[in-house]
Amino acid sequence: MRKKIVAGNWKMNTTIKEAEVLVKDLTALVDEFDTDVDIIVCPPFTHLDSVARLLAKQYDEKEKIYLGAQNCADHTSGAYTGEVSVNMLKSVNCKYVILGHSERREYYHENSASLYEKIELALNAGIIPIFCVGEKLEERESNRHFEVVAEQIKDVLYRLKGAEMSKIIIAYEPVWAIGTGKTATSEQAEEMHAYIRKVVADKFGDVADIVPILYGGSCKPSNAQEIFSKPNVDGGLIGGASLVAKDFVDIVKSF
Ligand code: PEP
User: Fold this and answer.
1) Distance (Å) from CA 132 to ligand 1 centroid
2) Read out DSSP for 68-128?
3) Which of 84, 207, 229, 251 suits 76 as a labelling partner, its CA being 20 to 30 A distant?
4) Which atom of ligand 1 is nearest to the CA of 236?
5) Range of the domain at 58
6) What is the pLDDT of residues 104-124, one digit of tens each?
7) Structural domains counted in the chain
8) Of 10, 41, 218, 227, which is best to mutate to test ligand 1, by the most ligand atoms within 8 angstroms of its C-beta?
């Protein structure tokens, strides 16, 4: 049985005050129901400690919302101005880190070599990577989407050991669907998720059955249920809609 996961990527949005309001609204809504979905919020680095404290105050025994970061450094410590290490993330109770988001690949030139380093560092620190893959519009239009996504997986995840792979979460995020309002159809999502699982199985065998694969790209309350109903879709990585507490919680409830 694979985990169901809904993770919110807040990107470069909110001030600390706004983040605190958002977390309070979220916890209030989440506390109204029981769920077997792992709920994760990924605020900007500057907000992690405040959000961690609010969550710890709310959930002193059983955590209902977990903390994630949007990136980490590909080195452990030292002269890397502006970077944030996995140990720093761990010190603020981060359990997850998004790695290889298309915005980071495109605007900050993240490549497979550094993503592999980041994944190794995160795993060694006990932080679970949410590894993003996905094709651009022109790649889908030229029917290269499977090839592109397989390459992204092989270049990074094929270098892991089976035990490491069993801890990874994959997020399929077609670049043409991120922040555009255009969502992949549930059939397109399922087709790619099944393919991703096969690519993982080709190298790691049965481990592929336990790897959660999340869909990301303009997922919202109105389309989440349809997308999450597919057998290989184990949840969502949510951008815009994660900034509105009710929308995010409605997506969680879509399972
Ligand atoms: C994302 O950036 O991970 C994302 C899925 O964004 P949005 O939901 O806004 O398309």
Assistant:
1) 11
2) EES---SSSSSS-TT---HHHHHHTT--EEEES-HHHHHHS---HHHHHHHHHHHHHTT-E
3) 207
4) 5
5) 4-252
6) 999 999 999 999 999 999 999
7) 1
8) 218
CA distance 74 to 86: 9
- Please report the atom of ligand 1 found closest to the CA of residue 103: 2
pLDDT tens per residue across span 170-213: 999 999 999 888 889 999 999 999 999 999 999 999 999 999 99
Instruction: Confirm or reject: Cβ of 234 under 6 Å from ligand 1.
Output: no
**Among the atoms of ligand 1, which is closest to the Cα of residue 242?**
8
How far is residue 121 CA from its own chain's centroid?
Answer: 17
| Residue 60 alpha carbon to ligand 1 centre in Å | 30
Query: Any idea of the CA torsion for 134, 65, 164, 145, to the nearest 10 degrees?
Result: -10
- Residue 153 CA to residue 213 CA, distance in Å, equals 12
CATH number reported for the structural domain that contains residue 84 in this entry: 3.20.20.70
Enter the pTM of the model.
Answer: 0.98
The residues assigned a catalytic role are 101, 173
Ligand 1 proximity of 238 Cβ (cutoff 6 Å): yes
